[in-house]
Design brief:
This protein is an alpha/beta fold. The chain is about 50% helix and about 20% strand. The chain has 20 helices and 24 strands. The termini are far apart.
Length: about 750
């Protein structure tokens, strides 16, 4: 306790600190003097600003009112022009009712002045008032009837010229029309004529004073003179403003602007302290803030030494604490690893990385706050499963490192199964339509002396390379080698493109009805001078992931174009060749331009090249529209279009309905059980439907004569598969084209059976 109390003892101020405090007080006093002087000049400036502000806002309101009144008159004239073309009173009444709702009239009716009848039911008293008000009116106009109604009037051109169209706004409607939303609700408006008579009075006249008393308020000569000047200006249609004191001793500002409608003028009445009152609040608040700041400064000065002494401890805590969970962060995990694991014997601990799959979706759909709460809950859950000498930390985003005390992979898996089970239970209880799925990598610490950074990197490799597995994946040298292999292949790509290590092979497509070659599919192969022949399954998925596949497709395209040009130059008629397109191309809306440029450069006729898309390229309706536009562009550029792996997705029928495709390739899985009746019916249905839509059908992956025989009877247009040929080099393909040899080594007759000579 003694040590703790001594740490709180306040040390004497240093001379430089005393000087700083003195300067602060001097600056504070100077600020107060300036503020008082500024307040003395502020009122005059506020009066001018308030007057200008009130005038500007009133002018804008005047313009709005005039525009609305003129718009109503114009709309009424258009309606009047339409009335003679309506058939019957019922149609006229329905038409006027629709227009009334649109124009916000209380009544919109046609009145026959001769018969004194109207198109809608109104009281006799109101009808008499309207007719009396319209007496002598021959053109469109807007008039006030006894201050209770605003009448919009226009003649209706009919045979007798006795009918008029009248739009009525009652007193409440009119008051809503002139009630401003500005001045913080403290303004008052009314409309008067050139004689000073009120045409439209405000709804609430108790805010400041009765408008009827306005022109009788003769409290001083200045006010009387201002009122008389206003009366003269109103008569001349001139705008103006003045300040005066009301009967109840309020300082008010009167603003008047001509509406340019009849001889009407809009009067606006606002308090003169409209701006000053708010400004005074801010000034008072500034003094208060200054005083509070001074008090706070003194308190800070008293506690400054204590804060400095505790600063080091707080920084240490911040450096090792995750701000979201309040637990360990990455630095704390590494420090604890060095303390607990590094001195331990081999295979005593395991380090685990837990990643929440698709966590970005939670952020986007439920917000960052909800997602952070889930991370906090997960961390508490992990801590609950920790035993003595075990620890956990959130190291970044949705990644958690766990250090478990275990001697075998089996034991680690059992522990992790318990954790995953708890997370799944939590997932079911959460009020979100999302199942928490964990991606887990692990490493048994058989080399405790290994640097902790390398340990974490290896666990990340295990977690990254096997994203689709459900159970934990343990790091092995094979995983590391696979990652190195991917990096090496990706690094070799540019050089192999430059050196021509990628080459094209053709797999023939055969017309089963006539047993003749009718096309080929171009496939890419990679023969590296040092690594040898690399399987497509090793480099195609990799290049799909790193984006190199787009350049690779162009390499294939150019080799196909070069071969076709060579065949044409020899006077041959080459068969169409299909070239695969990766879905990655669709990230660039102009990717087809490069394919078009290659076809033009090699001067190839339209229809010789077919661009092949996979059905999985389509995700949603927006993506489908993008692909549809791309297919249309393919045809414009002289390419045919085919869909590969057709039938394996959920949208196959929708695709052939929406897209202008030329060919579909039925996936090989349709033909694995060719003897199954249901499978046969599905295949036949696809072929018949495609033919009705003028789409060719290619069956790929065909390997037996029985499959060939069935497809021939089903009317399939083309067959591709090992039953006819494996993929061939270009020279092999040219020889095969002249003298086909089936992979069985025997000819096939039309039935798909070997021919016996």
């Amino acid at each position: 306790m003694k040590k703790e109390s001594s740490s709180l003892r306040i040390q004497p101020l240093l001379p430089r600190h005393r000087l700083q405090i003195t300067l602060f007080f001097m600056l504070l006093a100077a600020a107060l003097i300036v503020m008082v002087w500024n307040m003395a000049n502020l009122n005059d400036a506020l009066k001018i600003s308030t007057m200008q502000y009130a005038s500007d806002v009133s002018y804008q309101l005047t313009e709005d009112l005039a525009s609305r009144i003129q718009s109503n008159k114009t709309e009424l004239e258009l309606i009047a022009d339409s009335l003679p073309r309506l058939n019957g009173a019922q149609a006229e009444a329905e038409f006027l009712e629709r227009k009334r709702k649109i124009l916000d009239f209380d009544e919109l009716l046609a009145i026959d002045l001769q018969t004194r009848t109207s198109s809608a039911q109104i009281s006799e008293e109101l009808l008499d008032k309207i007719i009396a008000a319209l007496e002598g009116m021959e053109e469109s106009a807007v008039i006030s009837a006894e201050g209770q109604y605003l009448l919009f009037f226009t003649p209706v051109s009919d045979a007798q010229n006795s009918k008029v169209l009248v739009g009525i706004r009652n007193q409440q409607n009119i008051q809503n029309l002139i009630q401003p939303l500005s001045f913080n609700g403290r303004g008052l408006n009314c409309i008067v004529d050139s004689q000073g008579q009120v045409v439209i009075s405000p709804a609430d006249v108790q805010s400041f004073m009765q408008l009827d008393d306005l022109f009788q308020s003769e409290t001083d000569n200045e006010t009387v003179q201002a009122i008389r000047e206003m009366e003269n200006n109103i008569a001349k249609g001139i705008s103006g403003a003045f300040e005066f004191t009301s009967a109840d001793q309020r300082r008010l500002i009167m603003v008047y602007h001509s509406l340019k409608v009849n001889d009407w003028t809009l009067l606006t009445l606002v308090p003169s302290d409209l701006i000053a009152e708010t400004a005074e609040e801010y000034v008072t608040r500034s003094f208060l803030i200054l005083g509070v700041s001074f008090a706070v400064f003194v308190l800070l000065l008293i506690n400054i030494l204590y804060v400095v002494r505790r600063f080091g401890q707080r920084m240490k805590k911040l450096a090792f604490t995750d701000p979201l969970t309040g637990g360990m962060n990455a630095a704390a995990f590494q420090a604890e690893y060095l303390r607990c694991v590094a001195p331990a014997r081999p295979s005593s601990f395991a380090v685990v990385l837990v990643n929440v799959r698709g966590f970005k979706w939670l952020n986007e759909n439920y917000g960052i706050t909800a997602a952070d709460q889930i991370l906090q809950t997960l961390y508490r859950l992990f801590i609950q499963h920790m035993k003595e000498e075990e620890f956990a930390a959130r190291v970044e985003a949705d990644h958690f490192f766990l250090c478990l005390k275990a001697s075998s992979q089996k034991e680690v898996k059992q522990r992790l199964e318990e954790i995953v089970s708890t997370v799944e239970t939590l997932s079911r209880k959460m009020n979100v339509q999302y199942r928490l799925r964990l991606q887990i990598g692990a490493l048994m610490i058989d080399q405790p002396q290994l640097d902790v950074m390398r340990v974490q990197d290896r666990v990340r490799v295990a977690c990254h390379l096997h994203q689709e597995q459900e159970e934990p994946v343990f790091f092995t040298e094979e995983l590391l080698n696979a990652q190195k292999r991917e990096q090496e292949l990706s690094h070799q790509f540019e050089a192999s493109v430059r050196d021509g290590d990628f080459f094209v092979v053709f797999q023939p497509k055969v017309d089963p009805m006539h047993q003749r070659l009718c096309g080929a599919e171009a496939l890419v192969r990679w023969r590296h001078p040092k690594l040898g022949l690399i399987a497509p399954s090793d480099f195609i998925p990799l290049f799909e992931k790193d984006g190199n596949v787009c350049q690779l497709d162009l390499v294939v395209m150019e080799q196909v174009c070069r071969w076709l040009r060579h065949q044409l130059d020899l006077g041959k008629k080459p068969v169409p060749v299909s070239v695969n397109l990766s879905r990655m191309h669709f990230r660039n809306p102009h990717f087809l331009d490069e394919f078009r440029d290659l076809r033009i450069r090699y001067d190839l006729p339209a229809g010789l090249i077919e661009l092949e898309l996979t059905e999985s390229i389509c995700f949603d309706r927006q993506q489908r529209r993008l692909v549809q536009r791309t297919i249309e562009q393919m045809h414009t550029y002289g390419f045919r279009c085919s869909i590969d792996d057709f039938g394996v997705g959920f949208s196959s029928l929708a695709l052939i309905r929406e897209w202008e495709i030329d060919t579909i390739k039925l996936d090989r899985q349709f033909f694995e059980e060719i003897s199954d009746i249901r499978a046969q019916e599905v295949i036949v249905s696809f072929i018949e439907l495609a033919h009705k839509l003028r789409i060719q059908v290619v069956a790929e992956g065909i390997e037996s004569g029985d499959q060939v025989e069935f497809l021939r009877r089903a009317g399939c247009d083309q067959i591709q598969g090992f039953v006819y040929s494996r993929p061939l080099t270009l020279s092999e393909f040219e020889n095969w084209e002249v003298s086909p040899r089936w992979e069985t080594g025997k000819e096939l007759d039309f039935s798909g059976r070997p021919v016996i000579h």
